Amino acid sequence: MANIGDSSGEDELIRLLLKRQSELNSLLEITRAINKNTATPILVQMLEVILQNYLQVGKLRFLIEKDGKFACIAKYGGDLESAMVLSRACRKMNKFKTPIAISDHSDPVLKRYNYFIPIYHKSKALAYALIGDFNTSGDMLSNDLNFIQTLMNVIVVALENKKLFRERLQSERFQREMELAVEVQNMLIPLRVHKDDSVEIGARYLPHQNIGGDYFDFIRINENEFLWCIADVSGKGISAALLMANFQASLHAWAAVEDDLTNIIDRLNKIVLSNTKGERFITLFLARYNQKKRRLNYINAGHNPTILYSEGGAIPLKLGTTMIGVFEELPFLNEGEVDVEPGSLIFNYTDGLMDFESPNAKVWNEDKLLDFVLAHGELSPDNFNQALMDYLGSVHKSKPIDDITLLTLKIF
């Protein structure tokens, strides 16, 4: 009889050792798969195989937390419930941090299973598991439940690490895209302002959070004519910057061969629409000045109106069309024309100038801007731009919430 008992004890020990070896092999397989960055569905499939074949778990529901909600990523055996139903049932067990029997639970969903297994990090629930048709008992039960919890914990940590890695890659990709966009933007902005006997230009470019969609340019066409443009492309990032680079190249190309501003705008509209399929648009103010005739021709394409100050008066230049890049054929296209007296100041800006957050009750709008131009229109371009920014900073005590571009010309 003693020999039979000893033999039975040895058999149990051997069975336990083999089970431990199987568990270690399972963990090793999972760890190797994680180290190889195996896809999530494969990891989940490996978990199911281990539970079914090694541990004889007949029914499984495995839920993990995603953005505050629980999604069921592994399930087999029995009638399948919805993730919402399972999540609602598991939340009733949120006070338990270790595996617990639930077959006698009052909840009709929980009582279909043998055990509830929670996965926590500190006080946050990362995952829940329900297992059923699981008949292990005695000394092996506690070991098996702890092993299942450990196995699931390893997988949950791996999935969390995958998520963090993806987020870090996305953040680094976004940062690099912003850096590239800044580089492109800097190439588009003229390095120096222009000044000759007929015109003096002052420009200020203030990008918001290091990247903007603003653009301005000045092109001397011949000894009697020059052209300038101020524009704002919708959106941010490298795609917006590349669109603006393409716009600049197109503008320079057509300005060199086309005298008619309406034709230039029409061509630019078709180019932008072709490049963006209507997903982006550009607002701009485009003007051509003949210093011999002292005549200014312009088109305002959905942009903030440029202000012309002359002999104590100021008028907004609004004639033009809609933003470009939206319609295959512009619904209307009007060209403005105005004579310019010596000493006139022409102030161009992007909409960021009007998008200020003011902590006080003072109103800042286009009428107030017109008043400012009337009061300071005799200043030089650089002094005018500085006075305007000082005024907004000291009088209105406002902070910009978008890119700001100021382009001011003094015509002699």
UniProtKB/TrEMBL annotation:
SUPFAM superfamilies in UniProt: GAF domain-like (SSF55781), PP2C-like (SSF81606)
PANTHER family in the record: STAGE II SPORULATION PROTEIN E, STAGE II SPORULATION PROTEIN E-RELATED
Record's keyword terms, sorted: Hydrolase
InterPro entries membership: Bact_Sigma-Reg, PPM-type-like_dom_sf, PPM-type_phosphatase-like_dom
Molecular function as annotated in GO: phosphatase activity
Protein name: Serine/threonine protein phosphatase
Domain named PPM-type phosphatase: residues: 196-411
Domain of life according to the entry: Bacteria
Alphabetical list of Gene3D superfamilies matching this protein: PPM-type phosphatase domain
